[in-house]
Design a protein that fits this description.
The chain has 176 residues and is of the alpha/beta class. The chain has 3 helices and 8 strands; from the N terminus they run αββββββββαα. Bound molecules: copper (II) ion.
């Protein structure tokens, strides 16, 4: 019984330790240079946060062609940054407003997150799914203490019964 509790709490601890790892989000940095994006074409798993960092002397923007995000002008030499989290798989093209004509464009290709291959891209769902997997794992371990548990209980009960009987016979012998 104590072993069952131990295994149950061990599973719980493992779940708590591993769950944040499953939900952890990757961050990728794209550098804004004069006048191009360093790492212009990147491929990242869903849930990744892309951060554009201003490393040039000219003002730059990161602007989605689909209107999903627009950093606005980030002043040259400011070291400013802009972040956007990509939750849905797909191809996202973007550009720098003042330097699009100079070819300052980029693409973020978002692939299916390994932790959300059940079709959902929601982070909560990813964590929930992982928790389910951990529960299944805990169930796999359960038969070990389950087979040992009742056996130990039975042995303990038998031992108690036998010692009880011995005790009663001793008491009776003393009385008589
Ligand atoms: Cu630019």
């Amino acid at each position: 019984m104590r072993r069952l509790v131990y295994l149950a709490s061990l599973s719980l601890v493992l779940m708590l330790v591993l769950a944040p790892v499953a939900g952890a989000q990757e961050t990728v940095t794209v550098s804004m240079e004069d006048n191009f994006f360093d790492q212009a074409n990147i491929t990242v798993p869903a849930g990744t946060t892309v951060t554009w960092v201003q490393n040039g002397d000219n003002p730059h923007t990161t602007t989605s062609y689909d209107g999903l995000w627009d950093s606005g002008m980030i002043a040259g030499g400011s070291g400013g940054s802009f972040s956007y989290t990509f939750e849905e798989p797909g191809t996202y093209e973007y550009y720098c407003i003042p330097h699009e004509d100079l070819g300052m464009v980029g693409t973020v290709t978002v692939t299916e997150d390994a932790a959300t291959d059940d079709g959902t891209t929601d982070d909560g769902a990813a964590v929930d799914q992982y928790a389910e997997e951990t529960v299944v794992e805990a169930d796999d371990e359960a038969p070990l203490p389950a087979t040992g548990g009742p056996g130990l209980l039975l042995t303990a009960a038998l031992a108690a019964l036998i010692s009880g009987l011995i005790g009663i016979s001793l008491v009776r012998r003393r009385i008589s």
